[in-house]
Amino acid sequence: MNWHRYASPANFKRLSDRLLPWAAGGAALFLAAGVWSGLVVSPADYQQGETVRIMYVHVPAAWMSMFVYANMAVAAAAALVWRHPLAEVAGRAIAPVGAAFTFLCLVTGSLWGKPMWGTWWVWDARLTSVLILFFVYLAYMALNAAFDEPERGARASAVLALVGAINLPVIKFSVDWWNTLHQPASVTRLDAPAIDPSMLAPLLAMAIGFTLFFVAVAFVRIRAELVERRLEALRHARVAGEAAAERT
Amino acid sequence: MMAAFLDMGGYAAFVWPAWLLSAAILVAVSVSSVRRLRALERELAEAEGGRDPHS
Questions:
Q1: What's the whole-number mean pLDDT along residues A44-66?
Q2: What is the overall mean pLDDT for chain A?
Q3: S-S: A61 plus which of A16, A104, A143, A213, CB 3.0-4.6 Å?
Q4: Given an 8 Å threshold on Cβ–Cβ distance, is B22 in contact with A104?
Q5: Which of B8, B19, B30 sits opposite A57 (nearest CB)?
Q6: Closest chain B C-alpha to A44 CA, distance in angstroms
Q7: CA angle at residue B30 from B39 to B49, to 5 degrees?
Q8: CA dist A247 to A227, A241, A242, A244, B52, Å?
Q9: Distance (Å) of CA A19 to CA A15, A22, A217, B55
Q10: Nearest to residue B37, comparing CAs of A241, A152, A13, A108?
Q11: Which residue among B15, B25, B37 sits closest to A224, beta carbon to beta carbon?
Q12: What domain range is A234 assigned to?
């Protein structure tokens, strides 16, 4: 057995023990601030009225759907190139979280589109590319779990994660490249954000809260994957031991 | 005052489901993740059967 491979999971356990309370506590704090400022303090929009409050959950969910995927793609590259044991479990651990954020983005976008655009859904570039992102998450999870040997599933799904990363710039620039009902970027642009500070504050609070939430959940889920791998190794060792005992 | 807040300028049917679904998803993801970790750690403790976990 290749014991040095387990050195970094052990380090990860120490690191996550130390950082998890801070990430979880920070997430609770920023989400609470975001809920208060987003629902109570911030004003209604002069055009969109109170529906603008959907932005404070929709936009952070959309950012997270892409941020989690970017993490997954980096983990996939590290898993394929270096066969890093932590990277192999990281993608599998965070994919369902990314899928959940993407689902939330799609549903809240639909709930915002109906009153503002007059439709729940249009097949335009932004909405379609995000729907594809959701399906890529599902395909990744299915492929990852499709093999008896977890290693093979990890490699196959890592390739899929890398290929699917092409979709990220497509999503980001879809509002510039194609005509769409969806509005262009108003925060992440080169000049100053085109959004009033009274609305930017709750948006950023929610975005930081979502990010810290993801970090905390990722720590927990990667820990669970590492424990599961250890359990599988124990089972294999036991079966191998019994087989050896029968031969003698 | 409270009724006006809940009414969300007539958009209650869109604003509240968006926020409630967000809360539900965050709770579901965090609770299920922590539960799974705890269950697996229990299973590992049993499988290792009191042996030194680092051996």
A1: 93
A2: 90
A3: A104
A4: yes
A5: B19
A6: 9
A7: 15
A8: 31, 10, 9, 5, 28
A9: 6, 5, 12, 26
A10: A13
A11: B37
A12: 23-183+194-247
Q: CA A118 from chain center: how many Å?
A: 29
Question: Closest Cα partner for A132 from A157, A102, A162?
Answer: A102
Size of interface A-B (CB pairs under 8 A): 87
Any idea which residue has 């500070």 for tokens?
A197
Number of domains in chain A: 1
Length of chain B: 55
Q: For residues B3 and A171, give the distance between their C-alpha atoms in angstroms, rounded to a whole number.
A: 39
B6 interfacial to chain A (CB closer than 8 Å): no
Regions of chain B where pLDDT drops below 50? 55
3-state secondary structure of A45: strand
Tokens of residue A78, six digits: 């590290």
Which tens digit of pLDDT belongs to each residue from A67-89? 999 999 999 999 999 888 889 89
Q: Assess contact for A104 and B21: CB atoms under 8 A.
A: yes
Q: Is residue A55 part of a domain?
A: yes
Q: pLDDT per residue over A167-211, tens digit each?
A: 999 999 888 888 778 888 887 776 777 788 889 999 999 999 999
**Contact with chain A for residue B47, Cβ under 8 A:** yes
Q: Which of B11, B25, B34 sits opposite A104 (nearest CB)?
A: B25
Q: Which two tokens stand for residue A97?
A: 């979280």
Task: For residue range A204-241, list pLDDT tens digits in order.
Answer: 999 999 999 999 999 999 999 999 999 988 988 888 88
Per-domain boundaries in chain B: 2-48
ipTM score above 0.90: no
Residue at A150 is within a domain: yes
Tokens 């680092």 correspond to what residue? B54
List alpha helices for chain A, DSSP H. Answer: 7-36, 55-82, 85-117, 125-144, 150-164, 167-177, 197-247
